[in-house]
Specification:
The complex is a heterodimer of chains A (317) and B (248).
Chain A lengths: L1 H5 L1 H25 L2 H27 L7 H16 L5 H23 L4 H21 L1 H4 L17 H24 L1 H11 L1 H5 L5 H27 L9 H14 L6 H19 L3 H15 L3 H14 L1
Helix pairs in contact in A: 3-8, 3-11, 3-12, 3-13, 4-5, 4-6, 4-11, 5-6, 5-11, 8-9, 8-11, 9-11, 12-13, 12-15, 13-14
Chain B lengths: L2 E12 L2 E12 L3 E5 L6 H8 L7 E6 L2 E2 L5 H7 L1 E4 L11 H12 L16 H9 L15 H14 L4 E5 L7 H17 L3 E5 L3 H7 L2 E6 L2 E6 L1 H5 L2 H11 L1
Parallel strand pairs in B: 3-8, 3-9, 6-7, 7-8
Antiparallel strand pairs in B: 1-2, 1-4, 4-5, 9-10
Helix pairs in contact in B: 3-4, 3-5, 4-5
Chain lengths: 317, 248
């Protein structure tokens, strides 16, 4: 009996069953819970997508960015401004978000990826603040400090349930693509860059190109997450560019485990739950989050899934 | 056989220290050449210059009639110069298979493949190479769990996966037992003779150097002191005085 748990095929089968189970539950969710909870899960799904996009850089490539929220914000505002101010149809606005995510991350990444560690982190932060300042200053277009509200969305995604299914479908496609990327030859090179960039260069690979590609892919999916959030909330605010939001996403990744693909999924779910539940009961929810970060870093430095994975490997010998 | 690698008046200083001083070196294709010298003689710096890891202050590096003096490391590697470091340098968190697969991805032009799972790639050439260096049994082991000797072999396999024409080995037997050392040198001689691979190595163990090398270059304070066959170097009075004499 014990041998079954050590069998690789059994482990793969269990993983498939678990992922399929979660997928089915999410598919049926609007039929099972109240609209309020449906909205909560829609938000959680967007956070999951955003955390996954961020973790492609952080966990898989070893690049600590402090400005990834810039792409979330740009995605949100591109969709918001185009539909609210330019009266562009939602589908066209969404296509523009894809272009904006790609181009903006390519430009920012071009300047940032040639630097490493703390210099990279602060450059990304600086770019994010620059974009924040630009969005803030363009009051007529972006609403400045007030943000954009009552953003029109296509009728097909206007209700909570339809918006949920739209967000869920797009996120599943993105999750699948991100999973394929991390398991691909390109993904292996990202992991190698994270572990030993010098050896990668001596394998004839220009790490700058791969770091830039990782940055662009992360920014692209980050912008999609931003647009989905705008579709869901029908609003866009300057807080999306803030360091607090960045810190929460970083926390979500650390909590779940940055060296596992599904770690940020678990982390984002917990962070959204903490954010919503604790915010309801106490004004000091940020303090509780802070204590949680300290405990996680001390007790589970590899995050929840990292810890479970390690335990599982130890059990299997 | 022509000249595969040539340096002309190559120099590199660190502050006031001349690590490499106007070095003229010519390596013939298919040759197994050793570069010897006491600590600080400039052996590793010479390798760092050839591979593009350090920029030179002056002089030229010519690879098959093409100047490569200012090329970055990846470009130099792509031209066919691979390197094994003095301190073991592998991907510790990856398996032996993944370690060796990485350079192969570039060679097969699959480094930008974003959608095919790695598990579906052809493993045959990786397995053959891993077998050649004697790590077949450890193919699924993490590099971090290998013994020192096996890690050195793994690094050699990573270098060979680049399909090089010239292999630079910086003290390949450092920290190895006598048996591991003999096995490694036999492997290098086999690679040199059967594959026709040009090998340039630095080594402190003089027994190893004199038993495997076809030619030897002696560096002393960044300059070439002598060059010749093992017999010529053994009988060179200057070399005996400044280098071999110190060991005896």
């Amino acid at each position: 009996m014990e041998n079954i748990f050590r069998d690789v095929r059994f482990i793969k089968f269990s993983k498939t069953i678990l992922v399929s189970g979660v997928f089915i539950v999410f598919c049926l969710l609007p039929l099972l819970v109240s609209p309020r909870l449906v909205f909560f899960f829609s938000e959680a799904i967007v956070w999951i997508l955003f955390a996954l996009s961020y973790n492609l850089m952080l966990g898989h490539t070893g690049m600590l960015s402090l400005g990834h929220t810039a792409f979330f914000g740009l995605g949100a505002y591109t969709f918001g401004v185009l539909t609210r101010k330019a009266l562009v149809p939602g589908t066209t606005a969404f296509a523009a978000v894809l272009g904006m995510g790609f181009v903006s991350s390519l430009i920012v990444g071009f300047f940032c990826v040639r630097h490493r560690r703390i210099y990279f982190a602060f450059l990304t932060f600086a770019f994010c603040q620059m974009i924040y300042a630009i969005v803030y200053s363009m009051y007529n277009l972006t609403g400045g400090d007030d943000g954009l509200i009552s953003i029109p969305v296509p009728k097909i995604v206007a209700s909570t349930t339809s918006a949920y299914y739209f967000v869920f479908s797009v996120s599943v496609i993105c999750l699948f693509l991100l999973l394929r990327i991390t398991n691909s030859p390109f993904g292996s090179i990202l992991h190698a860059i994270r572990d030993n960039p010098e050896r990668v260069e001596f394998s004839g690979l220009r790490i700058k190109d791969f770091r830039l590609a990782s940055f662009v892919i992360a920014g692209f999916f980050g912008a999609i997450a931003g647009a989905l959030y705008t579709i869901l909330t029908k609003s866009a605010f300057l807080e999306y560019f803030g360091i607090e939001f960045m810190a929460l996403i970083l926390f979500a990744c650390l909590l779940g485990g940055i060296h596992t693909f599904y770690g940020p999924v678990v982390g984002a779910m917990i962070v959204v739950a903490l954010d919503k539940l604790l915010g309801k009961y106490t004004l000091y929810w940020a303090a509780v989050t802070g204590v949680s970060v300290i405990l996680i870093v001390i007790l589970f430095p590899k995050g929840i899934l990292g810890f479970l994975k390690e335990r599982g490997e130890r059990f299997r010998g | 056989m022509g000249i595969i690698l040539k340096t002309e008046l190559l120099s590199k200083s660190f502050g006031g220290l001349k690590a490499i001083d106007r070095v003229d070196l010519s390596v013939e294709e298919g040759e197994l050449r050793s570069v010897i010298g006491s600590n600080g003689a400039g052996k590793t710096t010479l390798f760092n210059l050839i591979t593009g890891y350090y920029p030179s202050d002056s002089g030229k590096i010519i690879w098959r009639d093409q100047e490569i003096t200012s090329l970055p490391v990846p470009r130099v590697t792509c031209l066919g110069i691979a390197r094994v470091f003095q301190r073991t340098n592998t991907f510790l968190n990856l398996t032996v298979w993944e370690n060796v697969m990485l350079p192969f991805l570039r060679v097969r032009k699959q480094e930008w493949n974003l959608l095919t799972p790695v598990s579906r790639l052809n493993k045959r050439d990786v397995e053959e190479l891993v077998e050649e260096v004697g790590l077949s049994e450890q193919i699924d082991h993490l590099a971090s769990t290998l013994s020192h000797g096996h890690q050195r072999r793994l690094e050699l396999a990573i270098a060979l996966a680049n399909v090089p024409a010239l292999l630079l080995l910086d003290e390949p037997t450092a920290g190895m037992s006598i048996r591991e050392c003999t096995e490694m040198m036999n492997l290098l001689m086999k690679l040199n003779q059967k594959r026709g691979l040009t090998i340039l190595l630095t080594e402190h163990d003089m027994k190893v150097v004199f038993s495997v090398s076809q030619r030897i270059t002696v560096l002393h304070f960044g300059r070439i002191l002598a060059e010749g066959s093992p017999g010529e170097i053994r009988n060179n009075a200057e070399v005996q005085k400044v280098y071999l004499g110190e060991n005896e």
